[in-house]
Predict the structure.
Amino acid sequence: MSKTFLIVDDSASMRQLVAFTIKDAGYDVLLAENGKDALEKMSRAKVDMVITDLNMPEMDGITFIRELRSKADYKFVPIVMLTTESQEAKKQEGRAAGASGWIVKPFSPSQLMDVVKKFVKERGQ
């Protein structure tokens, strides 16, 4: 059974770029425009890994991660921040909220897949 990834980004082109890379590796993908949209979609589908932007309208990435980590089913699901933010203070805030990893945009598809494979392997998936 294929693993399902949730891609959360307010940029349609970024969602599509990440989705293409993940799908090309054989995984299933769900897409969300912001944290609020993501939580709604996750209430109807099981997700094995989340890749989320930080700066989004309605619900930003940090708030989304906090909300997600408060749910028993998602306490240990890998969550990777994919953002233009590279300041150490933002990374620390992300880790404190429950982010598992951090990738700075722009990124290469191989860089993204290296991170994905690390978390999939760690979870025995």
Q: What stands out?
A: The chain has a mean pLDDT of 92.
